[in-house]
Amino acid sequence: MAKKIVSDLNVKGKKVLIRVDFNVPMKDGVITDDTRIRAALPTIEYVINHGGKAIVFSHLGRIKEEADLKKNDITPVAKRLEELIKKPVKFVNATRGKELEDAAKNLKEGEILMFQNTRYEDLDGKKESKNDPELGKYWASLGDVFVNDAFGTAHRAAASNVGIAANVSETAAGFLLEKEIKYIGGAVDNPVRPYIAILGGSKVSDKIGVIEALLQKADKVLIGGAMMFTFLKAMGKNIGTSRCEDDKLDLANELLQKANGKLVLPVDAVVNKAFEDVKGVVKSVDDFADDDMGLDIGPKTLELFAKELAGAKTVVWNGPMGVFEMKNYAAGTIGVCELLANLKDANTIIGGGDSAAAAESLGYADKMSHISTGGGASLEYLEGKELPGITCVDNI
Ligand code: ADP
Ligand code: MG
After folding, report:
1. CA 72, CA 19: separation in Å to the nearest integer?
2. Which of 118-127, 128-137, 332-341, 357-366 has the lowest mean pLDDT?
3. Which tens digits make up the pLDDT trace of 113-164?
4. 125 with 348: CB under 8 angstroms?
5. Which residues approach ligand 1 with their CB closer than 6 A?
6. In 16-91, where does DSSP find H-type helix?
7. 98 catalytic per annotation
8. Which residue among 199, 210, 272, 323 is best mutated to probe the pocket of ligand 1, counting the most ligand atoms within 8 A of its Cβ?
9. DSSP strand pairing (145-148 vs 171-173)
């Protein structure tokens, strides 16, 4: 079902509550990557350019004790937003109270207000994260309509998403959330085939749900990354000292049985004797020595993946193919980036924090149809689970 988008709202003269994902990485109070702030600009700009009064808020980090407050003060984010959007951003250093209420009331058309980290409310009984009904109602009372643009937290019901949505007349998706729904939701509900999934990264255990779901939905599931070794060991191969989850061997076997030939495993790997960034040796997965550690997929595997990907119309990729952070073990991940970049008329979707970072740092971000902004949320969405932060948006 189609969802209401911010551009479907009449925002003129209205106080528009905008939940964004400004959970940016910070070091000693300095923002180290402002991608998430930049990504939210189109939604905020739309609202203010159409005469809306923007009330912007986000969580930042986790708040468990008093000492976490200072570390996760969102003031620097409000400052950066001001620089990026080139408009004043009025900041209220509180999550409730008279100053905030007055600021919201006095906001004029085209103005922007931001308030403190929504998770400051977690200090008092996890009110934000556990969706305390009074809190959602209170935040809703500050505005007229609600726009959710925070995909990264859409898999959790919080006061700042579903809590507000339950108490306003209209809820719409922001442009970022719209894109997630279009691409990931599209792959889940109605993928154009052939539909190929590529899974890698560190652990099978993190991704059991998504492997099972994709084995049902996709035409093939290509496996790389450290997780390949749990499968290869389950098949009886010697994997040397490669990373493996021994307690998941039975599960890996079960998945191999259920897969009905849909699981495609690497045929070679780049190995080293230790976990360090020196040139490795390419070996067949049948020829590992006891002290070999597999750190990337090999060139024959890339050829195999190229064959499987030929003609693909939907590709979902989660998890790097090797230790891409080391230049000697980045070739597999670069190779898969290349393969996706060269597909014609395909929807190429990357989900997962490290995979997204890999595509970006290797220079392929603009070659993909969509790079998801949520790690956990994109995995749960791909699994076919209902995401509360999307469900709470009005249907059109
Ligand atoms: P994502 O965040 O995209 O879901 P993960 O967090 O599951 O991905 O995994 C990413 C990590 O997996 C990277 O830090 C990468 O170095 C590591 N990795 C990939 N292949 C291997 C391997 N063969 N051995 C050890 N670590 C690996
Ligand atoms: Mg990760």
Report:
1. 17
2. 357-366
3. 999 999 999 999 999 999 999 999 999 999 999 999 999 999 999 999 999 9
4. no
5. 201-202, 206, 225-226, 243, 294-295, 318-320, 322-323, 325, 352-355, 375
6. 35-49, 67-71, 75-85
7. no
8. 323
9. parallel
